[in-house]
Automatic annotation (TrEMBL):
<dbReference type="InterPro" id="IPR001173">
    <property type="entry name" value="Glyco_trans_2-like"/>
</dbReference>
<comment type="similarity">
    <text>Belongs to the glycosyltransferase 2 family.</text>
</comment>
<protein>
    <submittedName>
        <fullName>Glycosyltransferase family 2 protein</fullName>
    </submittedName>
</protein>
<keyword id="KW-0808">Transferase</keyword>
<dbReference type="Pfam" id="PF00535">
    <property type="entry name" value="Glycos_transf_2"/>
</dbReference>
<feature type="domain" description="Glycosyltransferase 2-like">
    <location>
        <begin position="41"/>
        <end position="151"/>
    </location>
</feature>
<dbReference type="InterPro" id="IPR029044">
    <property type="entry name" value="Nucleotide-diphossugar_trans"/>
</dbReference>
<dbReference type="GO" id="GO:0016757">
    <property type="term" value="F:glycosyltransferase activity"/>
</dbReference>
<keyword id="KW-0328">Glycosyltransferase</keyword>
Amino acid sequence: MKWYADYLSIYDRPFTQVPQTVINQVKDKIRQLATHAPLVSVVAIAHNEEKRILSCLWSLCENQHTYPVEILVINNHSTDRTEEVLKELGVTYFNECQKGPGFARQCGLNHARGKYHLCIDADTLYPPRYISTIVKALQEKEVVGTYALWSFLPNEHHLGLFFYETLRDLYLKIQNLNRPELNVRGMAFAFHTETARKEGFRTDILRGEDGSLALALKKYGKLRFVTARKARVLTGHGTISADGSLFSSFKKRAIKGLRNFTALFYSKNDYEDEDSNLIK
């Protein structure tokens, strides 16, 4: 059975339709993880994730590791029942009323107590050894941050997704050579907490707060690309749906990738923000 089978069985289901046995199981595991001195802070951001946050937390609290871990959730201006779900589960959470991933991530960074900080998205599922694999990479000499690969939730277009992800991963590995910051996605990004606090997340942009922090962290050490299957997360189809279809998404990114291909061989220390991405 696939590692994500149980989590996927309740993914995108209303909380009221989830078996009480599952809810109790997650509550117990969250309670067992409670610690006064965490080494690792696992910080999820959530905006209207009532139907997905339970799956995410279930996968996180069942992770296999030997570290003292705290799980925090930042409820980012949700208008659905996300906060009610968090209360029912007994997970530590904070409300961030300023909407935007930058505000949510910074709120999490402000409250994290662990030496290592793992950024989490509430619509994403995490494999059994995700935490241990990422922390091991963060403990390597001179590594200040890590980022990992991701796959999309399985659906009827599994063959198309396979080719899409295979070609994308190849592109990311090439991009990693000189522009690792462009590979970073908040759902699979981690770093040394105190180092990140020196820079902080940008809150003046709609998206890209993760890559911007990764770029800023490069002056302190190395960004490690974790390509192991044990760290490959599973996420929703939001980006593909926004493009209309899998083919449209592939076409859009292929054209953009070809246009920018030669630029991949030159490193960059700053990027110009597009007006459309600025919070005004």
